[in-house]
Amino acid sequence: MECLPAGSRHSRLFPLLWAESSLRPSCPRQTEAAPSSSSSGGGGASGLWPRPLRAAGAGAPQAPPPAGPRPSAVGSWGGRRRGRPCPAGPPPPRAGSRPGRPAPGPAPAASPRAARGCPERGRQGRARSPEAPPLLPGAASPRLPGRGRAGSAARAAEEVTAGRGPPDSSGGRHGGADLPPLQPRRHRRRPARPRAGRLRGPGPGQGRPVPRPQGFTALTEKFSQSISLEQGADEVTQTLNHYLSDILEELLAFGGDILKFAGDAMLVLWRVKQTELKDTISLVLQCSQQIQEKYGIRETDVGQKLRLKIGISAGHISLLTVGDKREQHFLLLGQTVGEVWQAQNLATASDVVLSAGCWELCDQSKITAKRIKGQAAAVKVTGVERMSVCQREELFSQFPQARLNSSCPELSGILRPAVTLAPCHSLWKLLRKYIPATVLRKLDDRQPLDYMSELRPVTCLFVKLHFAARVNLAQLCKAIQDSSVMISEIIRPYKGEINKIIMFDKGCTFLCVFGLPGEKVPYESVHALESALKISKACCSRPMKIEAVSVGVTSGTVFCGVVGHRVRHEYTVMGQKVNLAARLMESYPGIVSCDTATYATSQLPCSYFKELPEVKMKGVADPGTIHQYLGMLEKLIAGMEVPKARSAYPTLLGREKEMALFESYLKAYVARKESRIVAFEGVMGSGKSHLLTELAYLGQAAGHRVVAVELTEQNLRQACSAMHMMLAVAMGLQACQSCSARQLVLQQKLRGLMGESSYCLLNVPFLVKFPLSEKVSKMSDAQRTAALESVLKKVLQKTVEEEVVVFVIDNAHYIDATSWAFLWRMLRDVPAFLVMGLAPGRSRRQRLCKTAADILKLQQTTCVHLEELKPSAVVQKACQALGVVSMPRALETFLMQRSYGIPYYCEELLSHLNRHNMLLFHPLRKDGKTEAKWESLFTSAMEASPGAACHSSSAGKDCRVCTVRPDVNLQNTVLPPTLKEIALTELDSMEPSEQLVLKCAAIIGLMFTTELLFHILPTWTKAKMEKALNVLVRGRILKWLKAEKVAEDSSVSTEGSVASLEEECGAQKWSSGETEKTARLQCGVLAFCAPLLREAAYELWPKAQRVAMHHKCTAFLQRQVHKCQCCGGGDFVAFHRFAISGIQEGQSCDDFPSKCYLPSWEASLGQPETERDEQPTTSETAKALQEGKSVLVVTSRATQRFLAKTEQIPTVASETKGMRGAVRSCECKAIVELVLVPLAHHHMAMGNDARALYYLLECAAAYLHVCDNYLAFTNLTKAEVLMSSERAKKAKVLACFEEATFLSLKGEVCYNMGCTDLAEMTTRKALSLLNRQFPVTSAGVVFKSLLEKLKHASWEATKASCLHQEARRERLPWLLRQSRCLFLLRQLFSLESASSGRRRSRLAALMEVNTAEESGDASHILWAYVEYAQRCQDLGCREEWLQYGRAAMQLSSDVEPFGGGVLNAAKFAQALSHLNLSLGNLPLSVDVGYRAKSLCAELEQPDLDREVLATLFTALFLQMRYPECVEVLARLEKQVAGEHRIIGQACFFSCCLDLLLYAGWEYKSFEECRSFVEQNEANCILKSQKSILFGLFSSLALWFARLGQWDNFQKPFEKAKQLLKGADASVPATQACSRLLECYSLLLRKDIEHSSARAWESRAGALRLAEEAFARCSTSPVFYARVYHLKAYIFRMLGDKHESQLCLTQGLQACALNGNLLEKTWLEMSSEQWSTGKAFRHQSPPGPAPEAKPEV
Length: 1752
Fold this sequence. Notes:
The chain is an alpha+beta fold.
């Protein structure tokens, strides 16, 4: 076969049939989605059909075909395989011919698919095997339409021939260009066949001259304005694909094939014999008319109608192949190409126009036409005689593809025979040159086409060559060839790529793109501008008959990927920025013009540009300011640039160590005068420039001179420019505005250092004009360089001798090699102090020269790596930048995660948020307090460095606080363009397989499992995935998470705290000792080290593909939505799925598989009636008590039964393995992070608001389940934004139960954070939505209490009339949610000190019991009894406490301990431990407490763990088991670590004080305990827990009272007395009350000893408190002994020995009953001392002296 060399040209006679599409504005209409690679492209939307008009015309005859070898036009080629002769003439590649047997054409009213008939099946051919690699751009799916043969590597050749892959069949290097004719040499003598066609459709930057010039550019502009620039490119591409698919389906059905795409134009080709030309033209006209009828008008979503216009021509075409050894392109030339372009220009919307030549060649008797005004020959077709099916079949049989199929049956159905080539074939390698390099890399990696399309920021260059008026065809071809090679050589070093070369639209134009996938490099816009200028100069300077070059340069987000039909497509770029580049090229001829975005992102000096006048451009509403790029002029070579100004803030955050190092080295240099280099290395944005500016300021403040310069990339291209700049600044030349001024300064500075005859050596480096001396003119270049260097050294030597000079060079990695060499020699002779900043090798992208590396290795060189800022410094910097004293925690987390500790990232993120009005600023109230609102629930007032926050405010203004706008979700904000460029540069530096892994992982989220990743990766093996993952882990892009760290790693969690991120946001070090195999076994969970990279990778996906990927993820995760088995399974919102109908997209609630660990609701409801009858009533309990069955005995038996049932816990637990392989441990944290959060994210991304809300509520409930209030708050905020959106309101996604659940969860978060008023309000609303009312007034509470008591008493009678089982299942979620609301109200009312609060709390508890009984759930009833008993205990209601405590114990015998999972067992163990402690059964309390502790070790329940440990500590403490107390304290301290565990920390310090006061063991010093109390006494969360706070203040007061420090005693004593008024009768409050009673007794002793007048007042207070404490002990009998002991002491002081002895006796009896060994010991000591008759006034109250403090 013959391969055409680059630059060759061949001409043939073809009947060229062309078509053009035009886009016109009109009213909006919804368009269909673009077809996928596996869907049919047939069919179309209906539109307005124009009425045909009749006319006639004539044209010129067609010239005969030339002799000699001629290439095919493009597409599939004719001829036989295996050496058999082919039909006459070199077979031009034709794409749309009817494969197989001849096929009839479509009937007038038939659809494209129906009209195709058998040919459709033939064209589809045989399916490729699923395992065949997607070798070509057209192979978008395992089954490749339009192909035959199972896919091997050879199939790629067909796509290459057909086009560069995607949407086009023309296989050019330019993303969809046509392929060169590749024919056997023996076929060359065949006569040529005339034909070709052209169809114009939407495309980038293309227009058509019509009376109303509103087309595709206007559509793109509208999409960009109505959505966004990024999404506009995506939407317009989807609209285009959908439209083209329908049109191309018709063209292929009529035997046409796509020769070339050109923006919004398409070139379509029909190839037949000369004798069949007339019939073929008629066929094409029929096809055109049918397309106009069906698809002539297409409505879009933005009110712009797509309209089609078609031009048709026939005649000679010339095919030109251009390019070099690495890439090739082809384009079409000839008069026929011009004629078809003119024909489509003459056409208006919905017209079909024939060129003059085509009108002459057609069968005019079958065509009705109309003359076009002003045109002599071209006509507009208004009607054509329809061909019959038989006529069409006969005509199809004469097409070359039909003859090929008849002679080669094995090729039947193949549109591009080149797909049968093997990879080893020479043509296979040749055809690869026509495919873009970015596509080839992904094809070689076997990535399907669906994964190749991206939305990414690029820089586009449209280059137009203006040829001379008199240029022949040979000169034209040579000029195009030379230009293409030259353009490739210019842009290739900067990763630029020629995407298209087009001749038939706007002349000879080149579309060049910088930043295609895998080709992103830093400073992309700078490289594009420089390349554009070089192209312009090079093309005009060479003898190529080019008079001028116009270049348009734009930067922005465009669609990069596959455009077109599923079997005819190309890889190209599309979007508003592409169109704008084409418009700039046309509107500003002969220059290099650029848009505002390119001007801004280049960050080049404004002198490099010139602002251009505004020109109206077709279809562009607001192009912005347009600039001409001038390049770097000669006068800018010196570049007298200095670093930016110093920051206005007093200190540079996070760089204290670096500044101290600089100061120490500077002092050493001043003292010793030895050379020193300090090099600060850091990634881009790490703050090198700010640091160097600060160091320059410190040097000046120390009285030294500072010479500072800032280099750019331009300095690398000029020899010794860096040193020249530094010396120019050192000599003060930067202030000189003229050449004469610089000459004068140089003469003054160099006087005595060099002769006047040598001044001319300074002309070039310092832009002066000294006359050339004879001495210098005789020097060689080397001599001049040496002489100049000698002078410069003398200048430096003189400078450093006169004063201390600090040289500062920013961006030192831009120092050229000559300057490094000069610096190396200078350091040996001149003692200089040099400070420089440079980027590491990975960031600078250029390797330092050898001299530079040697300098950095010198002994006098110190290299300092700039680490990332700590999270606290990031927050302070943000506060400084915003001028606020505080910001929401969500914003803190957002900045810490996405900035990754890099200052520049933080600045860009804040600027982006501010620019888009996402932040709100409010003045800080003078009292420093903020109103309790839901939005400000987690706003922490974190002040920045002193005075920094309010630095920008004037003295008379208040400081401000910052909040996030309520409707803004920070997690979904788009990355700033600058940061996206940085992230994509890093992403593109990876291999294609690694890029695909990251893109797919980005769809899942910040954390992902390897199983889900493997599920969404396209036809990968696990070995390939693991290989890519290990490379990414080693490169610190991803990191493995240990099982216990899943959802705890703050750097990857969706939110995180400052404290936790302090450790995690630093560089994640990969342990070299850990092998890859070990890493893979770590639970298969990975996370992104830098969320910035994940965000950038996620934004690359086009919308349609992104939604499809989200669908795949949801399908995988859907069946894992449940609590872990350890926690009992089921929904986190109890029975949530039963309350929401239709939420599972057609799945009923019973469709979920058993592996979801859903507890059977029938088991929950199906409690046997006999068992219910055994539940005790009030009368039965009273009878049992009368018969001597005390509650203590019942509790002891229940405890022993529980311990017996749970003795085999390890055996039971080991039977069930968790999702991480651990022994039945809680996995809820992993489930919420890896399943629920991603599901909510996926559904929000898909626009499924109902399901997104469902999973957001599940997420919030799950986070509350694992005691993470902040993440629950975050998900509820997202749910609130979703519920308030207009889309959700229109869709009515909010159900009543969902709203009630949202409010109840919101109330729980508010309660946990201490906002009781807000919690009560939201919980009441939730209860009302659940059809349950709670009274507001006191009278209502009394009346409601009576009703609830009656209801409870009559429950045994009403339980028989239960609802039907199905109705009960639907009712159950509502009842359980009611119970949760009532539980929360009970907790809230119990915090009120007034009696009304206690009554309401008791009512809520009673309503909770009745609700539980109504549900019929045995487990629910059990917990209702337990909680009601505890509430009665807190209220001091002894009888009801004992009654319901005994009822709960009896009911527990019928409930399996592990029936609800380990969680229920642990909760019940804690209830037993607490009840035994209260009753005084301390040994059993300790035993069951240890059992609860072991159960909690398997759970992720911090609050429950705290309660268990606190109860266990008290029981051990009262039994004097102090070593065990210390062990419990150690675990408690570890469990409550963290700034948001304030209640747990308070319990911990309260236990430490108990151990210190009564045992003398010092686990934490008293000062530490006191400091904690004083720092947190105003904390709203702690203030809501009055019992704990009461205990802390009473302990502090007792410590000071025992030491006699009465001044310090008074404050905590008064606070404890105030808290006593609102304290309940719980165990902690009763214990605190006993400590306060001891304080009263010590105060009474002091007053008696000093004969104070307050003695009687102290006596009354002590006796009154003693009686109150005794009453409280009715529900906490374990403390009876302590109260008896203190009463005995008081009576002893008052002289009543009888009462004192009586109290001692009663106290000893109480100790014997409950095993309180601690108090028994002190009672015996007091009894012994008092019986000896010692003077009482010298004795201390019962308890150890404060001085006894053995450290633990």
